[in-house]
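batch job 7 of whatever, protein = DUF2000 domain-containing protein
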Amino acid sequence: MTRCAFIIDRALPPGLIANTAAALSMTLGKLRPDLVGCDLEDADGVGHSGITTIVMPILVSDAEALRTLRRNAAEREAEGLGVIGMTDVAQRAKSYDDYRRRLAATRQEELRYLGLCLHGPAALVRSLTGSLPLLK
């Protein structure tokens, strides 16, 4: 069974929390189109695009814990865990080309993670995120 969780830095302002979750969701949809349901119609025949077929909680953590979680999650990728990160480098970039250049010039230890999306086997995702609180 597949599980997904978004983990966002609780210190971010609401707009950046929303932006981070949206950016992570876009990448998740690209990587895992199987998690998006088919298009549907309502009783009036109006079409509605497919949405997620799984629950996607938004959890919170702090910047240092996100860095640690990213490192721990990367060690589990061979077990089927997917890891998507949104960093300060991406947030500051003015275009994707700008992001590409900035990221290529930034070492891993210099990145500040604004949020992560972990997806894959439910037990694995839960083992890494089970103690984190929901965004309120």
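notes: The two ends are 26 Å apart (CA to CA).
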